[in-house]
Specification:
The complex is a heterodimer.
Chain A lengths: L1 E4 L7 H10 L3 E4 L9 E4 L5 H11 L1 H10 L3 E5 L1 H4 L4 E2 L12 E5 L10 E9 L13 E7 L1 E5 L5 E6 L3 E8 L2 E4 L7 H12 L3
Parallel strand pairs in A: 1-2, 1-3, 3-4, 4-12, 5-6
Antiparallel strand pairs in A: 6-9, 7-8, 7-10, 10-11, 11-12
Helix pairs in contact in A: 1-5
Chain B lengths: L4 E9 L2 E2 L14 H11 L4 E5 L4 H4 L1 H12 L4 E4 L5 H9 L4 E4 L1 H5 L2 H10 L4 E9 L4 E5 L4 E6 H11 L3 E6 L11 H10 L4 E4 L5 H9 L5 E4 L1 H4 L5 H10 L7
Parallel strand pairs in B: 1-3, 1-11, 3-4, 4-5, 5-6, 6-9, 9-10, 10-11
Antiparallel strand pairs in B: 1-2, 6-7, 7-8
């Protein structure tokens, strides 16, 4: 059973749908509950502080920390990944602190459009399980103005170039994050979802 | 590198696509979901639905279309037309739309841009600007290009960006429907004046037009309708051409 965290931040419709296509069952989790799940997906769009605030209000932050400790696989998507870090330039609140590092805003000096919006490629740094059978330089759909900066460089499995290189796939033990939206990234994205739900 | 996006636009009226593709199977004629599926399979990078239903009652059909489309395709799609409130936006996003596009209401009640961006994130708030060339510069029109406003398109683009819009869908009223090429000068001017991505719309008639608005107009994406619906060009053909001309494209 795949748990999909719903904390009122954005579109979980496509995530539910992408799980359905893998043949696995999913359940939307809106508050901490005693439920037998093996994998958890933390989707998310919108602002960092709003996301953290909503999770704190429902107690989902502590729930996620417990589940991670129990060894459940967890996948953070976009803001979901960003909340795995300690903090963000976008807000004042602390993140979930699964990863060391913070999220920074794309600089105006890049002379590139912000948000970073559209299809961009992922360069594979490490053949992590989440990237199984994903060809080098596959395209994924991004929509974000902040990017994660990981202190632990060894947990970066994929990078993407937008004026410079940032971490777009991060993986540490049972915790995985992707900056792009696999649920919106056509076949390559669906492969990521499949890889995730099949992690053992 | 970030790819330039090819975006088919589907006009939907009372739940049916108008001026759509001529599917051989009549059962599919006018079905917005089938159209979206077709373009997605062709390699479209996003889809835009523009709901041109005249009444609020008829417009409710779009919610059902959004739900079905979200199940049928796994690329982003935007819904525009008749959106007036946070509640309208919430209903569309909750049904599975990735972005919403506002035009007339953005002008009449610009605080909606700010509140929507704050609540849902800039990445899902597209402001559509319909602009018409005047003596010096471009004037913003609303209500499907029928009503002129006092707004200057460049100033308005800067304003919507400052309110939190994540993208601008820029249509040249002069070029729209002519198939004689995008308004390059307009697209270039707006792109130079905002940091958010600009989607060029109106006037696509040939492969060169697409290349020109990307290279000279600095558009992040190109939107087209009849060019694709009437199969004058196909998405694979467009993508191949742009790639051969050095444009980064998702193939």
């Amino acid at each position: 059973m795949i748990g999909i965290i719903n904390y009122g931040a954005g579109n979980i419709f496509s995530v539910i749908n992408s799980i359905k296509k893998t043949g696995k069952k999913s359940k939307v989790i809106s508050k901490p509950e005693n439920i037998n799940i093996t994998h958890i997906i933390l989707p998310g769009v919108g602002a960092f502080d709003d996301g953290i605030k909503k999770m704190k209000e429902t107690g989902m932050d502590e729930f996620l920390k417990e589940q991670v400790k129990k060894g459940k696989y967890i996948l953070g998507i976009c803001l979901g990944l960003q909340m795995f870090f300690e903090k963000s330039q976008e807000g004042l609140l602390n993140g979930l602190c699964f990863f060391k590092g913070e999220n920074l805003k794309f600089s105006d000096t890049l002379k590139l459009p912000i948000p970073h919006m559209g299809w961009n490629t992922v360069f594979i740094k490490k053949r992590a399980d989440i990237l199984k059978d994903i060809p080098e330089k596959s395209f994924f759909y991004f929509a974000h103005s902040y990017y994660p900066v990981s202190v632990e460089k060894n947990i970066i499995s994929g990078i993407t170039e937008y004026g410079f290189e940032f971490a777009s796939v991060v993986e540490k033990d049972n915790i995985i994050g992707v900056q792009f939206h696999p649920e919106k990234s056509s076949d390559s994205g669906q492969k990521i979802i499949e890889n995730f739900v099949n992690l053992k | 590198m970030l790819a330039k996006r090819i975006i088919p636009c589907l006009d939907v009226k009372d739940g049916k696509v108008v001026k759509g593709i001529h599917f051989e199977n009549l059962r599919n004629a006018g079905d917005p979901v089938k159209h979206a599926e077709f373009y997605s399979s062709q390699g479209a990078d996003e889809i835009v639905f523009l709901d041109i239903s005249a009444t609020v009652e008829k417009r409710k059909t779009i919610i059902d279309i959004v739900k079905k489309t979200a199940q049928a395709i796994s690329i982003p799609f935007t819904v525009g037309g008749g959106i007036k409130s946070i509640e309208d936006i919430n209903n569309l996003l909750e049904s599975g739309a990735d972005k919403i596009s506002i035009n007339t209401t953005a002008v009449k009640n610009s605080s909606l841009i700010y509140h929507a961006a704050k609540k849902f994130g800039s990445q899902c708030i597209v402001v559509a600007i319909d602009a018409k060339k005047i003596y010096e510069g471009w004037q913003v029109y609303i209500e499907s290009g029928k009503t002129p406003t006092e707004l200057d398109a460049v100033q308005w683009a800067r304003q919507v960006e400052s309110f939190g819009a994540g993208e601008i869908l820029l249509t040249s009223i002069d070029a729209d429907g002519t198939q004689k090429g995008y308004d390059i000068a307009l697209t270039k001017k707006i792109s130079e004046n905002v940091r958010i991505p600009v989607i060029a719309s109106g006037g696509a008639g040939s492969l060169e037009h697409l290349l020109d608005v990307i290279v000279q107009g600095n558009a992040s994406a190109v939107l087209m309708a009849s060019l694709l619906h009437f199969k004058i060009l196909t998405i694979p053909r467009i993508k191949k051409y742009l790639q051969q001309n050095g444009i980064c494209i998702r193939i």
